[in-house]
Amino acid sequence: LELWKPENDETFINTANQVEVRLRVEPDLQPGHSIWIYLDGKRVDGLPPAGETFTLTEVWRGTHTLNAIVTDRGGQPLIRSQTVTFHVQQNNINSPQRANQAPPPRPTPRPIGGRPGG
What are 31-57's pLDDT values in tens digits? Predict the structure, then answer.
């Protein structure tokens, strides 16, 4: 069981809180076997019990861990993947200006010490 996407220490930027997970399973799953994906140590519910590609939703900004487990008919773990760490970044209004954007106009200075001409 190999977890090959995301790669360890990979960074995702502006993913709409979605991350694609890809696995390799050899030999193929046997009848009654299931794959469970764990994000930050918690099982992700709502995914199909078999397959090699999954899309995780609601993966928020920050650093996360991910691994997969194949279980038998009774839910007992048979094999675990390595755990990978990945990062999600989302731009926001506090992000630095992009290089191809002009900076905002500078404010006009005001006189110090009261009214003009006074």
Answer: 999 999 999 999 999 999 998 999 999
Q: Chain centroid to CA 21: how far?
A: 10
End-to-end Cα separation, the chain, in angstroms: 81
51-57: list long-range contacts, CB under 8 Å, 24+ apart: 52/22, 52/23, 52/24, 52/25, 53/20, 53/21, 53/22, 53/23, 54/20, 54/21, 54/22, 54/23, 55/18, 55/19, 55/20, 55/21, 56/18, 56/19, 56/20, 56/21, 57/17, 57/18
Pull the structure tokens for residue 64.
């996360």
User: Of 27, 24, 18, nearest to 4 (Cα)?
Assistant: 24
